[in-house]
Amino acid sequence: MHFFFSFLSSLFTATYVHAACTTFDMASPMQVPNHAVFLPELATHHPRPSTSTASFSVSPRRATAAAAPGLGAVVAKCRPRWREIQGCNNWEGLVEPLSPLLCAEIVRYGEFVVAYYKAFDLNPGSKRYLNCKYGKRSLLREVGMGSAGYEITKYIYATPDISIPTQAGTCRSRWIGYTAVSSAAAVGRRDILVALRGTVTSTEWLANFMSSLTPARLDPGDPRAEVNVESGFLGLYTSDDSSCRFSSRSCREQLLAEVLRIMDRYREEELSITLAGHSMGSSLALLFGYDLAELGLNQAAKGEIPITVYSFGGPRVGNLGFRER
Hints:
By secondary structure, the chain is an alpha/beta fold. The protein has helices spanning 71-78, 82-85, 100-119, 139-142, 184-187, 202-208, 231-238, 251-265, 280-294, 320-324; strands at residues 3-8, 12-17, 22-26, 150-158, 174-182, 190-196, 213-215, 228-230, 271-278, 299-300, 303-304, 307-312.
């Protein structure tokens, strides 16, 4: 199995590492001023940028939405080349110059993260405060993406492994993202999508500052003590809150259960798994992609299901041992 780890920073860089996932990372708008051309709605958080050893580069000026044709036309053109666009060859020939098809796919997946922010209720007086304004069936339609060709299947909640005395007795879990699945006709295969947001609550900010490294130990059969990740992100990924009706299970357990359910339902079809996250959400997306690959859960009767992570402004997640996996 192989894992390609890549970035769009002030330059686009990529390195080769071992595992079974592909990551495409967009640096924060603070580092790349014209990043906001892609997704201005995401230009609100400024996390620590990721780092990697460069193997090729491209000017970010070419990575603009204006460089891409209409998204509907692009999706149609991507269908016969979707594995290549998803990174099966580490985007060989698509980076310098940046392919309009790849550019538009980055924008397309970024819009699914933007959809989250549009649906997130930030009104303290609302009964849905810090949750979603809409039901699963209507969210994409309400945010103007009703024709995207995806159906939301589950809302995902996460619980920071932090207790604040003033919040004793209150539910610590918050809506952090959703899973969705495409119609096969829309993108040329059955795409399983996970979209995850960035930091919002005070406990999530505290989790972000918990930068000490701790062994991931996600595979009980092979804990790999040399693989360490930031404790705050790992806690957010693996903690639960039994007092909350939406999150008696951890973010990890919710994601694994739902993605495996969708995989089983469409096991006779050609599948892909795409994880898109912004800021803190990109860290969770990367942890989940690593988790799926290390557990071998993307193995299917028809072969290995590709996993791709689109990371927008993602911070560092783990140590060298993590990167090498």
